[in-house]
Design brief:
Helix content is about 80%, strand content about 0%. It is built from six helices and no strands.
């Protein structure tokens, strides 16, 4: 009797995330649309700041700074994190959800290390007496990197939620829903990884 009750509870838990194929497709489409609208908005935001950055360079008060070397390490961390989230997607496609969950957690840890590294970069600049209002270049540096960290932190929370969902799944249920969430989190993460490389190039070469 106890075994029957346990089985029923497991089935009920698994059915929480199992949707009819048509409903799953509609839900996936809505989530994907919402994600792309959000990323389009973020693109316009950073494009506007990039344009302002380039235009403002013509001012006589523009002064470049020697950026902290930790930014190179931070860039490497994000590149590696993009690799780990792709490994998670590959594992998920093959039904290796435990490996997928581990890779998602690895991605999150690398992302946290990136955020810590960005704070270290800001601390280094502050130690040099460089603040947001020091000159136009420093203002853009703090604003652009700060906005990126803010968005990436939202991505970290998304990753941790996906990891939690993966590790609590039971009996193979909800695979389609989890795959959809994992793909969305990977899209988000890759976008802001590429965006960071763009910002890094912009701030160091232009």
């Amino acid at each position: 009797m106890a075994n029957m009750s346990t089985a029923a509870m497991s089935a009920e838990t698994g059915n929480q995330y199992r949707l009819a194929p048509g409903e799953q497709r509609r839900r996936d489409f809505a989530l994907q649309l919402g994600m792309w609208v959000f990323l389009a908005t973020a693109t316009m935001l950073f494009a506007a700041f990039s344009s302002a950055y380039i235009v403002r360079q013509s001012g006589t008060d523009w002064r470049y700074l020697t950026l902290p070397s930790v930014l190179w390490l931070n860039t490497l961390l994000l590149v590696v994190s993009s690799v780990s989230i792709e490994i998670a997607r590959i594992d998920a496609r093959h039904g290796k959800w435990r490996g997928a969950g581990a890779s998602v957690v690895t991605t999150a840890i690398l992302g946290i290390a990136f955020v810590v590294g960005q704070f270290a970069a800001w601390r280094d600049l502050v130690a040099q007496g460089v603040y947001i209002p020091t000159n136009p270049y420093s203002s853009f540096f703090y604003i652009l990197t700060g906005l990126h960290v803010l968005h990436l932190t939202a991505g970290l929370m998304f990753l941790l939620y996906v990891a939690w969902r993966i590790f609590r799944r039971a009996g193979g249920a909800g695979s389609a829903s989890l795959s959809s969430l994992l793909n969305l989190s990977a899209t988000f993460w890759h976008f802001f990884g590429v965006l960071w490389i763009y910002l890094f190039v912009l701030l160091t070469l232009f």
